[in-house]
Amino acid sequence: MRKFQLLALLGVLLVAAGFGLLAQSRALAQDAPMEEPPYLAEYYNAWMGSAHAAADTEAFRHWDDEGEVPVECARCHSTPGYRDYVGQDGSEFGVVDAAAPTGTVITCDACHAPNAVSLTSVTFPSGAVIEMPDGSRSGRCMVCHQGRASTDTVNNAIADAGVAEDLNTPSADLGFINVHYYAAAASLFGSEARGGYQYDGKIYQLPNEHVPGLATCADCHNPHTLEIKVDVCAECHDVETQEDLRYIRMQGSSADYDGDEDIDEGIAEEIEGLQEMLLEAIQLYAEEVVGTPIAYNSAAYPYFFLDADGNGEVDDGETDRYNAFTGNLLKAAYNLQFTYKDPGGFAHNPTYHIELLYDSIESLNAQVSDPVDLTFASRTDPGHFDVTAEAFRHWDEDGMVPGTCARCHSAEGLPVFLANGANIAEEPSNSLACSTCHTSLSEFTLYEVNEVAFPSGARLSFGEGAEANLCLACHQGRESTVSVNAAIGRAGVGPDEVSDALSFRNVHYFAAGATLFGSEAQGAYQYEGKEYNGRFMHAEEVQTCTDCHRPHSGTFRVNICQDCHEDVEEQEDVLFIRLEPEGVDAVDYDGDGDAEEPIRDEVMALEDALLAEIQKYATETAGTPIIYESHTHPYWYIDGNGNGVVDEGEVTGDTRYVTWTPTLLQAAYNYQYIQKDPGVFAHNGDYALQILYDSLEAIGGPEAVANFTRPPVR
Fold first, then answer.
1. Does the pLDDT at position 410 exceed 50?
2. Which of 76, 18, 14 lies closest to 51 in space, CA to CA?
């Protein structure tokens, strides 16, 4: 009760302060003397130094000559207009009913109006309604810091101008659309708010998931001074001043977004590089496709001008607004301005800004003869932070990642699993997050895992407390010899008998941990009576996942490979490695006469042979021809015309393969297993060759392996 009374008292004081400050703000705007209020002086002094109190700025003086702030501007450029918008003056919520008087700034009476404090959702210019995180009061910030345009605004303008079907034709009815200033919330909420122009067919970043406790405006900004809480940033980042924030770059941001071969520069600098590239693309397009040169000045309305002398810059006297926009040009120009007008975009949602810039360049490049070079630029991160990957986007329409998938396909899933041994459904996330694997985001300590249970039931480990055990929690597959045998046992049929009770069992993707541990994990289907290699022991310093891979991107540590493989200089060079153990002669496993070709090539040759035997067996023994489509679940389909390749119309829900025998299932499972671990040649090459050899022999008989050699068990 006492807590409630104190809060109520504080509310009364704030409202009282608000009315006092409203009066004082008018005095300030009129250059009249002001006195420090006798109450809440700390907040007053903080506010006085903020942009919200900057009465002499254009944001509040622009309409002095008109004598009133118009309806479309009053919400964010006056306290009466803001209170009108939230319905605190008794009018309808969500609209401004009347122009506001000039001479005010944004006072306590705006942000601390009860209707503003209690906002639980905010409507953006796209029409998207964004629910505020539980306990957040940042909705009152987002009422204004959301911009005034969106993807939808741009599309509607193009449609109204009648050029939606011809995006390269200029229209006098098409003018530049300005998102307006400081649309930080539109950046923060990314694809949900649609504040930037989002191209059809592209996937864009969801709301930016920083770290727990830093998700909204007031988490990172002082709500009165508006300054960034640099001391909070310093808990994870090596920063001392606000300027230092521009040079932040986290381990997960491992791509060279602007293609300048510098992956150590700050993310703000990557965005600036892409901005320069987009402006170049805009000017190339305007000159070549439109025939009217264009120049840009981010600080001068209307920003895009006719470039009379064609030098690419806005010179003195070049004041005519650009009047030859096409649909393609408008989209790109809008995105350039969007990224400029949120100067904190590198922190609010850097990936979203990078995607918008990259896609705009790519779109214009398709229309010009000498495009801006994107060869070395990147739109997204690889691996665990690839926000466009199906691994994270698959459940966007459903709205929830089911508990059976959440452990490895959501940011919060793994910590939940480690704490409880099970998962519940989670909301889709952009990708994995720092907090997925790290227990502390200042010390970057990892969750400690001593051993991991594999689908076969085996409990395996790199050693007690080894960091790479955490990788095994996901990179283990979802099936095993045990589950395949169990399915066959339930069907109760002979090796070559078709059963409706059998269906394909998919090991899932990137079961690298199962491959590495070989026979100990039984991730692949291991035939009864056969022996297989166990854990692959590489060189002394490269025994675990993180010894060979960068944990954030998943890319190879090429410099480590070079210690033994002198020909390795780039990521792709790893594919061509072949190095036999000391004292062991090279073996031509695939019988093509080349015992020095890369191990990957040996594996691929046996893969191809196995697919051919699977198709032969399916036709001759199971009675239904089969085809394989690696990118479409459930991967195996009926080959309608029996030509052995995937043709149009053969991959549908009605054509999935159902004529399974135990022999066919075992071989198809192993084929998929090898396909879905693209690094199998390095993780445990001999184990992979043993699995392929035995699958060939089981489904095709001795003739199928007559030219092949099975690696010995070591």
1. yes
2. 76
